[in-house]
Hints:
The structure holds two protein chains of two kinds. By secondary structure, chain A is mainly beta.
Amino acid sequence: AQSVSQHNHHVILSEAASLELGCNYSYGGTVNLFWYVQYPGQHLQLLLKYFSGDPLVKGIKGFEAEFIKSKFSFNLRKPSVQWSDTAEYFCAVNARAPGSARQLTFGSGTQLTVLP
Amino acid sequence: DGGITQSPKYLFRKEGQNVTLSCEQNLNHDAMYWYRQDPGQGLRLIYYSQIVNDFQKGDIAEGYSVSREKKESFPLTVTSAQKNPTAFYLCASSVPTSGNTIYFGEGSWLTVV
């Protein structure tokens, strides 16, 4: 079974600092990778996704993530965070196989707090 | 507007009572899901349905039941058998052509008192 690890449970940064949130997964096959964000009081929104091609993917609001297959990682980055980036971030992995609809597995989430 | 609508947003239930959470989508997605979100545990899959009149148990199905009589509707019943039902419940849907990208509703808070 696949699993997803987000090692940082809570990250606190000042505005303009750079951000990198770690995500590692365990699955030997082909995967689709996602980052979701949940702003306070709001529903989960898709931030970015990787299916194939360029391993550096860009998402909304200046976020990007890099898929490194050899490291089974899909870390989320942003060069300069803003107070409005305060939210909980979830990494998710979907094994790309027939009938794999139920294989979307989420990490435990990372709470990001950006101090003004 | 297209999207996923969950109701009610907040619900209180007495112990021993069943409660049904509604989920409706007008995205024409084939697959629908119910997740439970608890602090520090991420999202855990309760049930999913890939097509009308068919559904499968997820990782934590005990104490829950679902139905999928219509493509756009996937209600979740939290039964009295669920030992720890107080949680935030998220409904979602997806379509395979988007790589199974899952889109979420706004969630329902269930508190058992």
